[in-house]
Amino acid sequence: MTSTDGTLITPADLAGGGVGGNDPDVQGKFGIFGGRYVPEALIPALDEVAAEYEKAKTDLDFIREFDHLLRTYAGRPTTLTEVPRFAAHAGGARILLKREDLTHTGAHKINNVLGQALLTKRLGKRRVIAETGAGQHGVATATAAALMGLECVIYMGAVDCERQALNVARMKLLGATVVPVTNGSQTLKDAINEAFRDWVTNVEHTHYLFGTVAGPHPFPEIVRDFARIIGVEARRQVQELVGRLPDAVCAAVGGGSNAIGLFHAFIPDEGVRLYGYEAGGRGAETGEHALTLTQGSVGVLHGARTYVLQDDEGQTIESHSISAGLDYPGVGPEHAWLKDSGRATYEGVTDEEAMEAFALLARTEGIIPAIESSHALAGALRLGRELGPDAVILVNLSGRGDKDMGTAMKYFNL
Amino acid sequence: MTTLQAVFDKARAEDRAALVGYLPAGFPTKDGAVRAATAMVEAGCDVIEIGLPYSDPLMDGPTIQDAVHRSLENGTRIADVLRTVEGVAKSGAATLVMTYWNPIDRYGAERFARDLASAGGVGTITPDLTPEESGPWLDASRESGLGTVFLVAPSSPDERIAKVAACCTGFVYAASLMGVTGARESVSSAAEGLVKKTKAHTALPVCVGLGVGNGAQAAEVASYADGVIVGSAFIRRLLDAPDEKSGLVAVRELAEELARGVRR
């Protein structure tokens, strides 16, 4: 898939061209999902972003600049690592990790952020705002803002600020202002509400650098396209390594950007099963989880129709997960569509299962994963036992676990 | 039941703007909301918007967020919202529900429209429902004889204003500024231009909301708009009052001040 001039990405890679049939319609709908449910005041800004992105994604200068940043700044392509000692616990199936943890800033979020920061400059805006849960998107946004000389404000739930204090310090060091959000559940969903309030007030000079494939159109499409490189690279790397496509592709799903980034290049490959793992928290039966796709119902949250954790009158139910990055009661509309169409399968992984996989990968392979990514690892262990020793399973190791040491110290009494 | 048409006809006949007050159901208490809204009507509000409290009010500033949060803590359900509408409609005001879309979506559009109409409500204001997604709600509202009010904003280009206005019955809600709800020091200078632009696309009355909180501001807006919408300032009076009784006095005083404003 590498283009002839040696770049990582081509216009086709970015635009999802050649994949076909999985782009939203003009109103941003994936089937019945997606669209726009936002104050009218924001419609012109969303139109502006969509129009600029349409131009950018076929503009070779834009693509070259993005590609250059991905290679020389983010550290792409990221490697593929086979983990046999870990896989021994999965019935002997071959498990391959796509190492997004090795990117600059330590998680896949950098891909989307660099693309959108370039888009911000094209839009002629000087300020970016973003929401963050685990802090990874906030750190990535603050990083890109520092790199490109943009003013940066990050909204983060007060609860998350506490459990991810290290990332708060990183953002501040990078020159961003971090605003702790103290209303509602004080987590990611409330940070998104607050970021929207800022955006509607400052939209003239501010771009909302949305961090996941949720939200109103065109965010689900733009964020997916900038994250798509993960699957484009991995698809080629798996073929080079094992001589064929994988049997299954696994990723953790909160809002769903690392998952869609990995899945998307594989959607036309009918023999490749797609598995998304949501945060099962303390267990589906306890009600304390973030099982949006597996336990939620169809509704509207943060500007899009999708699956939502909500009560019988449409009030959002607060989610729970040991990983801040998956602690979200909504999910990207394209995942809702992939679920309903049967193309992808979504399952829950509890806090406990995720933490076991977290420790297991560290002990067996010397890799400390993010707790978010550990949900995908736990899913792969389960899937390996199911598919048997001949199976090849690709897992998105979406981020590294440095930020999770506080949680790990508490959990394992380290 | 007083219709929106009757309200604006009467205001026009009296050569003044209509006064629209907002209060969330269930705030300060379930019954207290009916008493406060009734006081607002007795002191001069022509139209009352009853807010349907929602967990993620992303268009609202801190004052309404606070009130809505308390309302949800009070256990307010849609049945309570409908009972509030019923109570307030008896006071003689045209009574609307202002709500984010998801609660109606979940309750069922047709069912909500029917139940609101039976409670004496005259329509809804839906701040996050775009014309593109409004089809089912327009159908359900028409079926039940409810008005549908949507918002235009200072950022709205002419073609959007035309599109939004075409979905409206009763009146068009012009958001005076780019931002969230809440009282401001002064009324945005964008408001007058927006009203003018909107009137080029519709014969409906145009009411201005966001950032209006006192008599002088009401008078200023009344000089170019058909209605003046006030929400956070009423809530602020209730939040600041030591008890409900003094809260009601404060709300009544504010409504009287605003009513004088729209008559200047």
**SSE string of chain B, helix = H, strand = E?**
HEHEHHEHHEHEEHEHEHEHH
CATH architecture of chain B: Alpha-Beta Barrel
Main beta sheet strand tally, sense and closure of chain B = 9 strands, parallel
Low-confidence stretches of chain A: 17-21
Q: What's the structural domain tally of chain B? A: 1
- Return the CATH topology of the largest domain in chain A: Rossmann fold
Give the name of the CATH superfamily of chain B.
Answer: Aldolase class I
CATH class of chain B: Alpha Beta
Class computed from helices, strands and strand pairing of chain A: alpha/beta
> What is the CATH topology classification name of chain B?
TIM Barrel
Ends apart, CA distance between termini of chain B: 28 Å
The main sheet of chain B orders its strands as 5-4-3-2-1-9-8-7-6
Count of helix runs of chain B: 12
Q: List the domain count of chain A as a whole number.
A: 2
- Percent of sequence in beta strands of chain A: 15-25%
Structural class of chain B: alpha/beta
Quick one: which chains have the greatest interface? A-B, 38 and 39 residues
Function (chain A): The beta subunit is responsible for the synthesis of L-tryptophan from indole and L-serine.
Cofactor (chain A): pyridoxal 5'-phosphate
EC number (chain A): 4.2.1.20
Family (chain A): Belongs to the TrpB family.
Could you explain how this protein is built, in words?
Chain A: The modification N6-(pyridoxal phosphate)lysine is found at residue 109. Chain A: It catalyses: (1S,2R)-1-C-(indol-3-yl)glycerol 3-phosphate + L-serine = D-glyceraldehyde 3-phosphate + L-tryptophan + H2O. Chain A: Its cofactor is pyridoxal 5'-phosphate. Chain A: Belongs to the TrpB family. Chain A: This is Tryptophan synthase beta chain. The complex is a heterodimer of chains A (414) and B (264). Chain A has 414 residues and is of the alpha/beta class. Helix content of chain A is 43%, strand content 17%. Chain A contains 17 helices and 14 strands. Chain A has helices at residues 11-15, 43-56, 60-74, 84-87, 109-122, 136-148, 158-163, 165-173, 188-202, 219-227, 229-242, 257-263, 292-295, 333-340, 351-365, 371-387, 405-412, and strands spanning 29-30, 33-34, 80-82, 94-99, 127-132, 151-157, 177-181, 206-208, 248-253, 273-281, 297-301, 304-308, 344-350, 392-397. In chain A, β1 (29-30) and β2 form a beta hairpin. In chain A, α10 (219-227) crosses α12 (257-263). Chain A is globular and about 55 Å long. Chain B has one domain: Aldolase class I (TIM Barrel, Alpha-Beta Barrel), CATH 3.20.20. Chain B is built from twelve helices and nine strands. Chain B has helices at residues 4-13, 30-42, 62-73, 78-89, 101-107, 109-118, 135-144, 158-167, 190-199, 215-222, 232-240, 244-263; strands at residues 18-24, 47-51, 94-98, 123-125, 147-149, 151-152, 172-175, 206-209, 227-230. A nine-stranded parallel beta sheet of chain B has the order 5-4-3-2-1-9-8-7-6. In chain B, α6 (109-118) packs parallel to α7 (135-144) and α11 (232-240) runs antiparallel to α12. Chain B starts with a helix and ends with a helix. The model of chain B has no long low-confidence stretch (mean pLDDT 97). Classes of the chains: A alpha/beta (414), B alpha/beta (264). Chain A binds chain B through residues 27, 35-45, 183-184, 189-190, 192-193, 196-197, 200-204, 297, 299-303, 308, 310, 312-316, and chain B through 54-59, 61, 65, 69, 72, 77-78, 101-107, 127-130, 132-133, 150-157, 160, 164, 175, 178-180.
